[in-house]
What does this fold into?
Amino acid sequence: MTTIAAPEWFTTAVESLLAGNVDGFVQMYDDEAVHEFHYASEGRPERLEGKTAIAEYMENLPARVRFDPDSFDDMQVREAGDELIVEVTGHGTRPGSDAPFNMHYVWWFITHKNGRVTRFRDYLNPLQPRSS
It folds into this structure.
């Protein structure tokens, strides 16, 4: 498995997310995609099925996250067949403060076909952020 440049469809989705454009982010999903949250907090979904359900959940994402992301860097993308493995560091601030906030994590295991995500396994642990 080697490190590669992020595919254009993925880069576009991440740029949309950073710009607060949830619709642009969700465009990377196939209509029948599945998004799994392996560290889902109690009361939050562990699995979303279908692009519509993913879009509805992501629409409220800015209100749920514990930090406002400004950038993602140190992104390393590995490809194994039809799967991307992404490690990234997110930088931003905590909502309601100017306190800097950084989080490094294995972000996603993404199964894709023709530039559309069919399965997205999210390993972001919202309980383990690192403030700088």
User: Anything to note?
Assistant: The radius of gyration is 14 Å.
